[in-house]
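RECORD TYPE: inverse folding
INPUT: C-alpha cells
STRUCTURE:
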C-alpha cells in the first residue's frame, strides 16, 4: 500500500512531498516524489490519558468541584458507574472508541475503573475496533494483572506501595495522578517511581528538579483542568525538565478529540506546533511502549490522512501549524490503523 501527499516525516514533522510505503502493517519507506492531490499524511494520535467509562454521563455534573465529580469512591462519576448496567457501560465506551478511531486516534492510555470487571468491560467494548486501548487497571493487583498495568488515582487517596511493587514485578506500566488540586500528593507519587505522571498543575521547584532527575514524563490534560477549575500547569517550566504528552481525560467533561486538545494547548500556552504534535503522537506512544507516533521506516503503520484541500485547510501556509491549530475531525480523509 502507498499513501501519497504532503508527508510530515520524522520526529520533526518535516513536510515533504512524497509517499509512505506500507508493507505488512509496517512503514517500509518514506519516499520523496511528486504526489497528486492535497492529502496531508502524519502519525495517528496517541491519547495518553483517558477515562472513557463515564461515556454514559456526558456533560453531567456541571458546576461541581473536581472532588464532587470524580473523587473515589463516591464522586458523581463513581455513583453513575455503579448504577449503570454492563451493557450500557460497554455501549458507551464503544461509542467513544469509535469516535476516537474515526478522528484519528490509534491508541489510548485508559485508567479503567471497576477492578477486574472494568478491564474486561473495556476489552469487550474495543473488540474489532482497531483502536488499541492500553488499559491500566485500578483498585486491585488483580486488575493490574488482567490489564496492561496500573493507573493510580492519587497518592493522597491510598497507599499504592503494594500495587506499585506488583506492577514492577510484572514488567507493566504504572501511572498516577499528581498535583492536580495542589502539591501535597506530588512527592509521595514520585516516591513510587512511576512510569509517568498525569496533570502536574501545581509542581513546586523541588518537584521540577525531581522530574528532571528522574526523567519522568508528564501527561497534560489542559481542557480538563479548565473544566474542573484546578488551575493550569506551568507548561514552560515542565517542558524544560521532561517530556510532555497530551490526554483528554474524562469523557464526562470533554470529548476524546485530540484535535481539540492540540488546538487548545497550542493557543493557550503559545507552544510551537511541532512540539504540540509530538505531545499528541510520539511522546504518548513512548510512554505507552508503542511502536508508532512517527512516520519513518520500521514504525507501525498507524497513520492519519487529512484532506488538505478541504474548505477548512485549503490555503494553509504552514502545514504543521494548520494540523495542530485548525484541523478537525471533518478534515479526516482516511485513518490507517
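DESIGNED SEQUENCE:
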Amino acid at each position: 500500500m502507498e499513501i501519497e501527499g504532503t508527508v510530515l516525516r520524522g520526529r520533526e514533522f518535516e513536510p515533504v512531498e512524497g509517499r509512505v510505503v506500507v508493507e505488512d502493517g509496517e512503514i517500509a519507506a518514506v519516499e520523496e516524489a511528486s504526489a497528486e492531490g492535497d492529502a496531508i499524511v502524519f502519525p495517528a494520535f496517541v491519547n495518553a490519558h483517558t477515562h472513557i467509562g463515564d461515556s454514559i454521563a456526558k456533560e453531567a455534573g456541571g458546576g461541581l468541584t473536581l472532588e464532587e465529580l470524580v473523587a473515589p469512591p463516591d464522586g458523581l462519576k463513581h455513583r453513575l458507574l455503579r448504577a449503570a448496567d454492563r451493557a450500557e457501560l460497554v455501549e458507551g465506551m464503544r461509542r467513544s472508541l469509535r469516535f476516537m478511531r474515526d478522528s484519528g486516534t490509534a491508541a489510548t492510555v485508559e485508567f479503567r475503573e471497576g477492578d477486574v470487571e472494568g478491564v474486561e468491560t473495556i476489552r469487550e467494548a474495543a473488540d474489532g475496533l482497531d483502536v488499541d486501548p492500553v488499559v491500566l487497571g485500578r483498585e486491585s493487583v488483580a486488575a493490574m494483572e488482567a490489564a496492561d498495568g496500573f493507573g493510580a488515582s492519587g497518592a493522597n487517596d491510598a497507599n499504592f506501595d503494594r500495587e506499585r511493587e506488583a506492577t514492577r514485578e510484572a514488567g507493566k506500566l504504572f501511572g498516577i495522578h499528581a498535583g492536580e488540586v495542589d502539591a501535597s500528593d506530588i512527592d509521595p507519587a514520585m516516591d513510587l517511581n512511576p512510569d509517568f505522571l498525569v496533570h502536574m498543575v501545581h509542581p513546586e521547584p523541588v518537584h521540577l528538579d525531581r522530574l528532571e532527575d528522574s526523567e519522568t514524563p508528564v501527561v497534560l490534560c489542559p481542557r480538563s483542568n479548565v473544566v474542573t477549575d484546578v488551575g493550569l500547569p506551568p507548561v514552560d517550566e515542565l517542558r524544560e525538565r521532561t517530556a510532555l504528552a497530551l490526554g483528554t481525560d474524562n469523557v464526562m467533561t470533554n470529548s476524546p478529540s485530540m484535535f481539540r486538545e492540540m488546538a487548545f494547548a497550542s493557543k493557550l500556552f503559545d507552544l510551537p506546533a511541532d512540539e504540540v504534535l509530538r505531545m499528541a503522537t510520539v511522546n504518548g506512544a513512548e510512554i505507552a511502549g508503542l511502536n508508532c507516533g512517527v512516520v519513518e521506516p520500521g514504525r507501525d503503520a498507524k497513520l492519519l490522512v487529512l484532506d488538505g484541500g478541504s474548505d477548512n485547510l485549503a490555503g494553509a501556509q504552514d502545514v504543521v501549524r494548520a494540523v495542530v491549530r485548525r484541523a478537525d475531525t471533518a478534515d479526516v480523509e482516511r485513518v490507517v490503523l
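NOTES: The first strand starts at residue 2 and ends at 9.
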